[in-house]
Amino acid sequence: MSKKKIQLSSGLVYSTDPNFELLDENFVEQHTIDLAQQKIQIKLDIKHRAGKAVTLVQGFIGTTKDMEELGKKLKSFCGTGGSVKDGDIIVQGDNRDKILQWLQKNGYKLTKKI
């Protein structure tokens, strides 16, 4: 049997704080830039999703909190589910036109549909 050693750089084993988050030492969160300067791309994706279509919103530059907030607003507007993962906002279904319309109405000028 081989013994595996897992080392954390901070030496932390357990925390009782419910709001605790272990952050990477090299991680620097970007500040949210102005809405009119955001270069957002909207595209349809069906790869690795069992044939289901999803709309990907990519290119948002800002904090994860702002990205989750934008994702929540887009999902609510489209009336569908989705998530925010790996810097992308995922909205279920083909909602490219709705999302483009909502983004342009709310001040995102540099958006394009792919």
Describe this structure in words.
This protein has 114 residues and is of the alpha+beta class. The protein has a domain at 35-113: SUI1-like domain (Translation Initiation Factor Eif1), CATH 3.30.780. It is 22% helix and 22% strand. The protein has two helices and five strands. A five-stranded mixed sheet has the order 3-4-2-1-5, covered by helices on one side. It is globular, with a radius of gyration of 18 Å.
Largest sheet: 5 strands, mixed
- The average pLDDT value, as a whole number, equals 86
Secondary structure: helix percent: 10-25%
Radius of gyration: 18 Å
The count of DSSP E runs of length 2 or more, i.e. the number of strands, is 5
| CATH C-level of the domain at 35-113 | Alpha Beta
Compute the number of helices: 2
Strand order of the largest sheet: 3-4-2-1-5
Shape type: globular
CATH architecture of the domain at 35-113: 2-Layer Sandwich
Would you spell out the secondary-structure blueprint of this structure?
Blueprint: E1 39-45, E2 54-58, H1 64-78, E3 82-85, E4 88-92, H2 96-105, E5 110-113
Parallel strand pairs: 1-5
Antiparallel strand pairs: 1-2, 2-4, 3-4
List keywords for this structure.
Translation Initiation Factor Eif1, 114 residues, globular, 22% helix, alpha+beta
Question: Nutshell version of this structure?
Answer:
The chain has 114 residues and is an alpha+beta fold. It has helices at residues 64-78, 96-105; strands at 39-45, 54-58, 82-85, 88-92, 110-113. The chain has a domain at 35-113: Translation Initiation Factor Eif1.
